């Protein structure tokens, strides 16, 4: 019987893997620019971490987690998101004892049991950033600016921020009470999930697309936030204005996770139509204390790489290619032996190099070099061996030049920057 990959997963093969490497390399670059260090956590954690961190009334915990019992009888969950894992690591490794803030970034797979569709998989990948140990509103601004700078590095443009504050544990209860009263008057208009959320967590109703008409005239949290939250939000807006980052207030934006406080945001593109959200996040000042025993502020965002690839396909003019520096073309038995040491010499000098392993004709080798987008080819034949030289061919112009074997690395270094 034929065995296929599980539904909602995919094999990432060349040339698509070149696109993934491009995104990941740019993620490493922007993180280095902003002085964020990489963190790698296990792909599975104890289930309690996500129940406590994400919130038991969220769709993720109620419907979407891959949870199983290991052989020791412990409940294990494949990570559906990364923030809770980062916080667990921060606490377990006592990073709070170091100078703060701590700035992390990550790239890796997450797992949610969702209905697969374009750009959405059950195993999906995120690039995200987290800052722990600072309540400075400028951190929230820096995070949004960093994400936008990353997108611009990829060649994307024309972004705006949808922004809101969802207050803090001190000012939110009055809002939640009024929200519950509002939705109780419209209970018949709510979907079955939101009727259940009405008593457990009415904030989640604001995040439901199916109940969007009912939420349109719901109370707005900005009318309820305390003076401290108001001042924090004002500084975030001022910082965005200073950086000339376009934003507008979305008063019912709450995000889909329970741990958020104060700033929440979604970054969108004007060029993408209805499905225009690219990355999102916010502040989560109570999460570290919820998971552990320390009151440490935090803020961050995450971006889905599968979704981002779709955006790139819509906006870019040409495909991303993984070019080969040099292709070695062999003519005759003696060239076969010489090419082995030549290839290693080129690779150890830092060039990407390949050759034919199928005893093909010179014409076929040339076609293979062209198919692999090689910038140069090196021809090794009897004539070259006798002269202790190599023929260097520019694959773009067709220009050929005889180069002494001991000079080939230096010549290529001048040509390939």
* Level-2 CATH architecture of the largest domain: 2-Layer Sandwich
Q: What is the strand content?
A: 15-25%
Structural class: alpha+beta
- Silhouette: elongated
Quantity of strands, as a count? 16
Number of separate structural domains: 2
CATH topology type of the largest domain: BirA Bifunctional Protein, domain 2
Poorly predicted spans: none
Largest sheet: 8 strands, mixed
Catalytic activity: tRNA(His) + L-histidine + ATP = L-histidyl-tRNA(His) + AMP + diphosphate + H(+)
GO molecular function: ATP binding; catalytic activity, acting on a protein; histidine-tRNA ligase activity; transferase activity
EC number: 6.1.1.21
InterPro entries: aa-tRNA-synth_II, aa-tRNA-synth_II/BPL/LPL, Anticodon-bd, Anticodon-bd_dom_sf, His-tRNA-ligase, HisRS-like_core, HisRS/HisZ, HisRS_anticodon
Summarize the structure.
By secondary structure, the chain is of the alpha+beta class. 37% of the residues lie in helices and 22% in strands.
Notable traits:
alpha+beta, 37% helix, Rossmann fold, EC 6.1.1.21, eight-stranded mixed beta sheet, elongated, 417 residues
